[in-house]
Amino acid sequence: MTSLTHLAAHLAAEKKSAEVTDWAARIGWVVGLLLFIALVYWLMRQGWKWRGSLQSGLPELPAAPETAGEPRLSLTGRYHGSTTAGQWLDRIVAHGLGVRSRVELTLTDAGLTVLRPGATDFFIPMDALREARLDKGIAGKVLAEGGLLVLTWKHGDTLIDSGFRSDTAAGHNEWVTTLNHLISTTEGAR
């Protein structure tokens, strides 16, 4: 016990204060970290632009016609992106197709109107639609099995898969059934 008391008295008598933080080194590390983060974001942006320039041969997206007809189905939800058909990780970024957003889909006899607040709206003519299916993922977004409505359509010479998720996923089956029926009817008329 006396040695403990002696040690405590010795430490209390010592007049050394705690080490002062080296602010210059700390600020240097923080600035270095911020520069590294900025570099990573800049490289990601350059990659996105490069991918867009590689896809520059993709034609402009069609606009919805003034008279598209009576709506057969409508859906509100999320647009998760578009990829080259069959390549669920090959995101298409040209013409704003890579931008995730809210979406309002309206299906008519003329085709599918895709309204995206804050992003480019587009129209998929009925004769461009190839298939509708339920899937679990597209372009970095993975959901439960069947949680994503994927539409395959032809734009120019490219087959594209576009992924949508309804606010009420129960309606996905109706979309698949209706779209595939309309697609088969349209193919029979060609």
Automatic annotation (TrEMBL):
InterPro entries (UniProt xref): PH_bac
A family per Pfam: bPH_11
Domain PH as annotated: residue spans: 58-179
Transmembrane segments: 23-44
Assigned keywords, A-Z: Membrane, Transmembrane, Transmembrane helix
Name assigned to this protein: PH domain-containing protein
